[in-house]
Structure to design on (390 residues):
């Protein structure tokens, strides 16, 4: 059997699975309301909002329409290092287009990039020129979506990076760009560090919340002013209130895996909470910052593929790998920052060595879903600077 074969794939969720989801939602055992419910998400997802969203999911959300939309893009499966890897491969009609690997984060999926596909592959039809065109490869991280079941332990950022390098080679792309956010940013950076002869440039998206990881994932520089340190410390305090999901999944993944696999409302609340606190402005409900049906498509994908469990295990593997998510590289690296603060560049690029830095007040952690047009423009602008004669 040729395990390196690339096989066409279509999403075809059995009707019995869809009926089971709706039945579970209809028979949810709800908690009693808190004596004074906080409607602002300060204590988590408010019960009233969660019930309304669950009702929409079970009664009004059209999975078959979303499934058809996902299947309108060419999808494939291949086996790398004993693991099934799922990916979208959407070539541009422009033969000279730049190959671009796009990697999602947590709690996202390839669904994050849906609004970017057509403008990036067919820019002439979306306000751009042929020089803006990309051939897109959008894989699912191992343990996410249809890159399941997970074949063996040890699948984390480094091993996934190696697999994606093999994937690009298997598709015939010897020189390509890379983009990602969250976990995808870690994979993107490591890919450039390991394969500078293949990766022409990287553009990662981030937001001010990344300062909360200061002192944890990267050191706090000594050139910041007191006012700048105050901004960093404020984000670190906010992260303390946010990091419970990561602590649990990084140390006790099986505890939460059972709940996320058995209860669709648990999975709904678990992901919705992050989409509310990480989108901008956070005062909105998450489905005002991100289209409701796109949010629920992402969550439904987690449910049908049991990604709640396998993504938690991925985070456990990453936490116990001993590897930093930052990997220095000589490859040109651009930044696309949403919900920005000037402190972030002072932190990450104080001497302005980065060939591209773009600040946006709009959007937040899920830039491809919150502000797709801005991210498209940044991708076009950055990678155009790497073209010969630019």
């Amino acid at each position: 059997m040729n395990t390196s074969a690339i096989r066409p794939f279509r999403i075809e969720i059995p009707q019995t699975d869809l009926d089971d989801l709706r039945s579970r939602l209809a028979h949810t055992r709800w908690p009693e309301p808190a004596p004074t419910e906080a409607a602002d998400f300060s204590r988590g997802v408010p019960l009233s909002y969660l019930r309304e969203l669950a009702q929409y999911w079970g009664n009004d959300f059209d999975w078959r329409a979303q499934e058809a939309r996902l299947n309108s893009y060419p999808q494939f499966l291949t086996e790398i290092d004993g693991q099934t890897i799922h990916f979208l491969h959407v070539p541009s009609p422009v033969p000279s287009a730049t190959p671009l690997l796009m990697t999602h984060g947590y709690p996202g999926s390839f669904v994050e990039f849906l609004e970017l596909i057509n403008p990036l592959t067919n820019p002439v039809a979306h306000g751009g020129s042929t020089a803006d065109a990309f051939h897109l490869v959008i894989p699912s991280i191992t343990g996410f979506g249809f890159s399941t079941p997970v074949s063996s332990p040890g699948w984390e950022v480094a091993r996934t990076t190696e697999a994606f390098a093999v994937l690009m080679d298997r598709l015939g792309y010897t020189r390509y760009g890379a983009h990602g956010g969250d976990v995808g940013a870690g994979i993107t950076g490591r890919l450039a560090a390991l394969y500078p002869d293949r990766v022409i440039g990287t553009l990662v998206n981030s937001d001010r919340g990344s300062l909360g990881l200061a002192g944890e994932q990267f050191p706090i520089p000594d050139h910041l002013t007191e006012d700048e340190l105050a901004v960093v410390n404020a984000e670190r305090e906010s992260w303390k209130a946010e990091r419970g999901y990561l602590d649990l999944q990084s140390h006790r993944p099986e505890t939460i895996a059972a709940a996320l696999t058995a209860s669709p409302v648990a999975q709904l609340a678990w992901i919705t909470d992050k989409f509310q606190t990480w989108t901008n402005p956070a005062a909105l409900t998450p489905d005002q910052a991100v289209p409701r049906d796109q949010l629920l498509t992402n969550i439904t994908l987690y449910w049908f593929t049991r990604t709640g469990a396998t993504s938690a295990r991925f985070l456990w593997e990453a936490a116990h790998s001993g590897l930093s998510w930052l990997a220095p590289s000589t490859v040109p690296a651009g930044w696309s920052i949403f919900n920005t603060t000037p402190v972030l560049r002072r932190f990450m690029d104080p001497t302005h060595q980065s060939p591209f830095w773009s600040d946006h007040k709009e959007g937040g952690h899920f830039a491809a879903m919150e502000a797709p047009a801005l991210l498209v423009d940044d991708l076009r602008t950055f990678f155009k600077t790497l073209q010969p004669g630019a």
Remarks:
- The first helix runs from residue 15 to 26.
